[in-house]
Design a protein that fits this description.
Length: 76
């Protein structure tokens, strides 16, 4: 087994999805979670089916034409 280490401060060059796309995905997921908690919506996000639905919703939103330039920017 060979272990490779990413040099410090090179993540944006080597893993651009970790810097931009995944951050946007996480922000959307947190906002959904905050909204559910703030308004006491009776949904348990820990349930498998609800996690699938939430991820499907986020994927749908990030697949829109307005998000397309963001995704094109991260792929080399």
């Amino acid at each position: 087994m060979k272990i490779l280490e990413i040099p410090k401060k090179t993540t944006p060059l080597i893993q651009p999805l970790n810097i931009y796309f995944n951050l946007q995905y996480t922000v959307i997921a947190r906002k959904l979670d905050d909204h559910i908690r703030l308004y006491n919506i009776n949904i348990k996000l820990a349930e498998h089916n609800n996690l699938i639905k939430m991820n499907s919703l986020i994927h749908n939103q990030l697949s829109s034409k307005t998000s397309n330039p963001m995704i094109q920017h991260t792929w080399f």
